[in-house]
Amino acid sequence: AADKISLIPQDFFAELCEQIIQHLNHKIPGINTAELCQRIQTSGVDINIGDLAKVANTLSFLFSTAARNNLSTEELVTTLGSGVSTLPKHAVQVIRHVWNEQGKAIAVSEDARDTAAVGQFVDMKWKLGVAMSSDTCRSLKYPYVTVTLTVADPSGQITDKSFEMTIPQFKNFFRQFKEMASVLETV
């Protein structure tokens, strides 16, 4: 990941590190690597979303391991310097600064780690549509609901999952949500 880190400008790298720390502190549900990747590419840097996700996963592992081992800023920087592949100077400076400012706040309780291992629901969008016709059928007039769920996986990567439902399927989906809401009200 060190060679990919060297591609990322310092300001974007700092933003990525801060988002990872916020995610580890449970302040944000995840890191939107797609949006960050697009902004980095717009600035003229040739990096793909897969490489940026690998960098984010590496940094997330680095910060969570440092928190678990209660490393000081100097211990973390020394550990980074003794690695097989050396990080660019600007990356080490950013990691030092972010860890010094916010690293101590990372909560590493067992409950928080178990909850994060499942992933987290971030947002849901839906829209109603009607298929009017297709190549093989002139008159469909078939209503459907498209649902897009935004979720953060355990590593913090935010992704969208979309699916379509018929109206009866959507009614069943809605009924189940109402049941969940009524159960949650009793808790």
Automatic annotation (TrEMBL):
PROSITE patterns registered for this protein in UniProt: COMM (PS51269)
GO molecular function: NF-kappaB binding
Domain COMM: residue ranges: 120-187
Pfam families found in the cross-reference section: COMM_domain (PF07258)
Similarity field: Belongs to the COMM domain-containing protein 6 family.
Function comment: Scaffold protein in the commander complex that is essential for endosomal recycling of transmembrane cargos; the commander complex is composed of the CCC subcomplex and the retriever subcomplex. May modulate activity of cullin-RING E3 ubiquitin ligase (CRL) complexes. Down-regulates activation of NF-kappa-B. Inhibits TNF-induced NFKB1 activation.
Official protein name in the record: COMM domain-containing protein 6
Organism of derivation: Chloropsis cyanopogon
Lineage: Eukaryota, Metazoa, Chordata, Craniata, Vertebrata
